[in-house]
Design a protein that fits this description.
The chain has 208 residues and is of the alpha+beta class. The protein contains seven helices and five strands, in the order αααββααβαβαβ. Helix 6 links the parallel strand 3 and strand 4.
Length: 208
């Protein structure tokens, strides 16, 4: 009887090993399938969110164009990527931060439509000053460099908007100097385009 027991193999049958292997493979396949479905769902949600963001940006752009229809039609301002641009020559003389009468009148016409837009979209207005790449002329006692000139111009426009009725809490100033030109500074015409003030609606800071 003992010899009979010894003649029987103690190894598990091959079908049991094959079954375990197949179960493991099925489990791996199921995990891969779940991951793929989850990734596809996340990708779809991300795509939907991106489409919604673009649609919202387009709605805001159209609303801003509608609010500024008159100054845009007359060419007094430009609108690029949601930024309202005003040529520096309309607002200021060369190397000056003193607002010209023409610029003062233009800013006055912008206050009402901008305020309506900001209220409707719960945003605030960033006023940015830019210069060309030419250094400040020697002997200028008001500004040390283009940073100071662009800063003062932005502040001048900001204060004028507030004086014309825009609430101080929805507008602020920023300076960029000669940085971020809209075109390369190659000649007088291109530099005149870079001497500008831009106004851009931006989201309010998140309260903590």
């Amino acid at each position: 009887m003992q010899e009979l027991d010894e003649g029987i193999s103690q190894d598990p049958p091959i079908w049991a090993i094959f079954g375990d292997l197949m179960s493991g493979l099925v489990g791996v396949f199921v995990l891969i399938l779940i991951w793929a479905l989850g990734f596809q769902l996340e990708l779809s949600q991300t795509l939907d969110q991106e489409i919604q963001k673009r649609q919202e940006a387009e709605r805001r752009r159209m609303a801003l164009e509608q609010a500024l229809a008159d100054p845009l039609a007359t060419g007094r301002v430009t609108l690029r990527d949601g930024r309202i641009g005003i040529s520096g020559s309309v607002l200021f003389q060369i190397n000056s931060a003193e607002l010209q009468p023409e610029g003062q009148k233009l800013l006055k016409t912008l206050v009402a439509p901008l305020q309506v837009y900001l209220d409707q979209h719960d945003q605030i207005l960033m006023v940015s000053g830019f210069t060309d790449d030419l250094p400040i002329q020697k002997g200028n006692l008001h500004f040390r460099d283009n940073w100071e000139l662009s800063a003062q111009r932005a502040l001048t426009v900001t204060r004028e908007l507030i004086d014309e009725g825009m609430p101080a809490e929805v507008v602020f100033a920023a300076a960029f100097g000669a940085q971020q030109p809209v075109v390369p500074n190659q000649d007088n015409q291109s530099r005149s385009q870079n001497r500008r003030v831009e106004m851009a609606p931006v989201p309010k800071a998140t309260e903590f």
